[in-house]
UniProtKB/TrEMBL annotation:
It is an enzyme of class 3 (hydrolase). PANTHER family: 8-OXO-DGTP DIPHOSPHATASE, NUDIX HYDROLASE FAMILY PROTEIN. Its cofactor is Mg(2+). GO terms for biological process: DNA repair; DNA replication; thiamine biosynthetic process. It comes from Nitrincola tibetensis. CDD domains: NUDIX_MutT_NudA_like, TMP_TenI. This is 8-oxo-dGTP diphosphatase. 8-oxo-dGTP binds at R24, H29, E35, F36, P37, G38, N120.
């Protein structure tokens, strides 16, 4: 196994939510492609310090606070890198191409117009995905269900996962069509947890697969929408989700939950180890809430997914 070159990478957003990218000079490795600014850790330099140094040297920015986003080990033909990507939460200064490189602030929905190195695919997902996914719970009837979804939206949820609650296909479609305009009005993504065929029929933007549906999936292109995720409970399932082209995954249960108290959680140590072996954004699910967000990021995850933390009582 070739040793990995540790590279610190910063995702820098301005007040308009645009992201800073830079053009790699033609004569460098992966030259002519766009990158998120950053560079190699030097000797035994602490990684966070390397991030601060690189963004100062390359852009003239002073970083005050950053949070880990995703780590991507990647083997190019000529070298192997570990992209250690951080969200820059606070910085001062005005970005300039200090090494003569072209830089651009780009809207999130225009990032795909730029060519990045192959290793960057999961970064492009991670920067668009939210920190929280709110999963729907139970309700006495459809009206109550819709009111609860409305409340979640008003409380700021911007990614809602609609569970099928053992509904018939027709009832699920009915609930979907009621909830979709509510989500659109809040610019929230509505993801469905249902069969591939129904998700395609509904023209859903995002689909979540159970582990058994993941096993049956032929490949990423079978789903027509933008986002495909899968529920994973083991390292094998994580690898399967990655090999089948899922854009992100849920790993559960991290902790024991009220609904499944007999099932021990995998715990943070295994969460960290298993996440290290995939290059996908991973949501922690099972007994976690917004309060665990920092911990999730420290352990390599993207964010938290939960029913109880978001579904109104
Ligand atoms: N900074 C950055 N590097 C990336 C990205 N994607 C990607 O594959 N890489 C690779 C390209 C390089 O092999 C390596 C980064 O090295 P670099 O050339 O930026 O390193 P550096 O700033 O320390 O420059 P130098 O001192 O080696 O000249 O990581 C990305 O988005 N940002
Ligand atoms: Mg660099």
């Amino acid at each position: 196994m070739k040793s990995l070159i540790h590279v610190m990478v910063g995702v820098i957003r301005n007040d308009q939510g645009q992201i800073l990218i830079a053009l790699r000079p033609k004569n460098r490795h992966q030259g002519g492609l766009w990158e998120f600014p950053g560079g190699k850790v030097e000797g035994d330099e602490p990684p966070y310090q390397a991030l601060v140094r690189e963004l100062s040297e390359e852009l003239g920015l002073l970083v005050h606070e950053a949070t880990p986003l995703i780590r991507i080990p990647y083997h190019y033909d000529d070298c192997s890198v570990l992209l250690d990507v951080w969200d820059v939460n606070r910085f001062t200064g005005e970005a300039k191409g200090m090494e003569g490189q072209e830089i651009r602030w780009v809207d999130l929905n225009h990032l795909n117009d730029y060519s990045f190195p192959a290793a960057n695919v999961p970064i492009l997902s991670a920067v668009r995905l939210p920190t929280q996914i709110a999963i729907t719970g139970d309700a006495a009837n459809k009206d109550e269900f819709c009111s609860k979804v409305q409340l979640m939206l008003e409380r700021g949820c911007r990614w809602i996962l609609l569970r099928d609650h053992s509904l018939s296909k027709r009832d699920f479609a009915d609930v979907f069509h009621s909830v979709k305009p509510m989500c659109d009005a809040h610019k929230a993504i509505l993801q469905v947890n249902t069969s591939l065929s129904l998700a395609n029929e509904l023209n859903a933007q995002a689909l979540h697969l159970t582990e058994s549906r993941l096993t049956e999936l032929m490949g990423r292109r079978a789903f027509n929408g933008q986002w495909l995720s899968a529920a994973c409970h083991s390292p094998d399932a994580l690898q399967l989700a990655q090999s089948k082209g899922c854009d992100f995954v849920f790993l559960s249960p991290v902790k024991a939950t009220a609904t499944h108290p007999e099932q021990a959680g995998i715990g943070w140590h295994r969460f960290h180890q298993w996440v290290s072996d995939v290059t996908l954004p991973v949501y922690a699910l099972g007994g976690v809430s917004q309060l665990d967000f920092q911990k999730v990021r420290e352990e390599g995850g993207q964010g938290v997914a939960s029913i109880s933390a978001f579904w109104p009582n």
